[in-house]
Design goal:
1 helix; about 120 residues; single chain; Ubiquitin-like (UB roll); 3-stranded antiparallel beta sheet
């Protein structure tokens, strides 16, 4: 079974930082998925720079993917009040492109255009 984990974190560089990330693992059950999430995050912290500023990680939710409807589904949403602070967004850090590929929709240095408006 596939499991998606949605995490938040806090840490410190020259000032406090916080953020969110998601992971996907394959496991027999949710307990096995949580073990794999821990191992993945530990390995990522030890072998890459991706989580170096992170001090604490919080598991917000785990989603078990039993099946995906043909029209898809919205898996996770975060909403905040106020203006969006500056930040960095990275898709598939440290992931081999033979496993997954990200398609960037914004040119570097240009403002992101709405995908759709209501």
């Amino acid at each position: 079974m596939l499991y998606m984990g949605y995490f938040s974190f806090d840490g410190f560089t020259d000032k406090p930082v916080h953020g969110y990330f998601s992971c996907v693992v394959e496991a027999d059950d949710v307990d096995g998925a949580m073990d794999k999430f821990r191992a993945l995050l530990d390995q990522t912290r030890k072998e890459t720079d991706t989580l170096q500023e992170v001090e604490s990680v919080y598991l917000d939710v785990v989603i078990e993917l039993k099946q995906v409807p043909s029209n898809g589904f919205l898996a996770h949403k975060i909403s905040r009040e106020g203006e969006l602070e500056t930040g960095i967004s990275t898709a598939l850090p440290e992931v081999n492109q033979t496993m997954a590929q990200a398609f960037t929709m914004a040119d570097e240095g240009k403002e992101l255009e709405p995908f759709m408006s209501f």
